[in-house]
Amino acid sequence: PSKPATHLTTLGILPVLYYDLDFWGKNWKATESAMQLVKAEQEDVQNTLLQLTTSVADAYLQPRTFDVELDVLNRTFLTRQDNYDLNKSQFDAGLVNALPMELAKSDLENVATSIESTSKNRATIEHRLAELVGQPASNFTLDKQTHKAFLPNIAAGVPSTMLQRRPDIRQALA
From CA 152, how far away is CA 51, in angstroms rounded? Predict the structure, then answer.
């Protein structure tokens, strides 16, 4: 009688070490290029933040300008209304013909149209500001202010140094 054949399998796991010698600097240049790409993307983020901040500041100051303009227009409307009332009473008394009254009425309507147009422009910019700060336009209001916004004085040498700090300029120079 013969013995059955026995198969024995040995399995071994050996660590493999692979190293690529970088004689011509291919790997080093790829790493350096990736680092420059990361720096450029960081500058892009800074540039985007700067643009957003600038847009918010601009959208904040524009309604303030419209507020001052609306204040002037409302006072002008009251003056034009008084002028129209005066011309109408003179016309009703027979002291003047209809021309001065019609001119005063036309002036009054022009100012009323300017008030409406400026109010719409203010509302549009206010909605833009709401969008920039991430609020629904229906819930966002910016109180009216009739005084001019305070803007700081900028020294003569500041614009050139600010230009050197701009992210898009730094990115181009990097």
Answer: 20
For residue 169, the number of C-alpha atoms closer than 13 Å in the C-beta half-sphere is 8
Whole-number Å distance between alpha carbons of 21 and 18: 10
Distance CA 92, CA 100 (A): 12
Of the candidates 124, 118, 128, 157, the residue with the CA atom closest to the CA atom of residue 57: 128
What is the pTM for the complete model shown? Answer: 0.62
Alpha carbons 73 and 153: distance in angstroms, whole number: 28
Tell me the C-alpha distance between 65 and 145, whole Å. 9
Nearest CA to 122 out of 148, 139, 145 is that of 145
CA 59/CA 127 separation, integer angstroms: 9
The answer to whether the CB of 39 falls within 8 A of the CB of 173 is no
Degrees to nearest 5, angle at CA 40 with 36 and 43: 140
Q: How far is CA 23 from CA 12, 16, 18, 26, 29, in A?
A: 34, 22, 16, 8, 12
Residue tagged 């692979």 (tokens): 18
Query: Mean pLDDT, consecutive 10-residue segments, the chain of 174 residues?
Result: 65 72 74 90 87 87 90 96 95 92 95 96 92 87 75 67 67 64
